[in-house]
Write a structure and sequence with these properties.
single chain, Rossmann fold
């Protein structure tokens, strides 16, 4: 099964840059993981991202979300988006990419269960390293949930 990877950032340049980096990382990871990742796209709004999740029936997706969408442009934040994604894709792996590390505690308060917080202000090599690690951890979490589900009697 291929796991879709999506990006949501309200700044188009940031979304494109992260998408390009993810596509490169996915090519490298796919060699190691037999093509388990598929980059679905990048989006700049709550509505467009949620529509893509619905349209493509994403399950066990990996989502890179800016933690704070501009409140002037959108009614909902990426924290709201993460909650909506989790309702549609309960095994979603949420990774926040942000300059607002102080908002990390809000994700615990809202019980989003984010996998990681990657700070945008890091160097390009550190940033790419964290993305690579987050993708590997997301795939490991998904595989672990399959193993647990396989051996769980309900």
């Amino acid at each position: 099964m291929k796991h879709q990877v999506l990006v949501c950032d309200d700044e188009l340049a940031q979304a494109q840059s992260l998408a390009e980096m993810l596509e490169r990382v996915i090519v490298i990871q796919d060699d190691e993981r037999q093509g388990k990742l598929d980059f679905l796209g990048y989006y700049t709004s709550y509505a467009a991202t949620l529509q893509a999740v619905t349209d493509h029936q994403v399950t066990e997706g990996i989502y890179f979300l800016d933690i704070e969408l501009s409140p002037k442009q959108y009614d909902k934040t990426d924290l709201d988006l993460a909650e909506a994604i989790k309702r549609q894709d309960p095994k979603a792996q949420i990774i926040f990419v942000t300059t607002h590390d102080e908002l990390a505690l809000m994700t615990f308060h809202r019980r989003i269960g984010a996998l990681d917080y990657i700070i945008k202000d890091s160097t390009r090599s550190e940033f790419q390293g964290r993305i690579t690690e987050a993708l590997a951890l997301a795939l490991e979490n998904i595989a672990t949930s399959h193993t647990t589900q396989k051996y769980t009697f309900t």
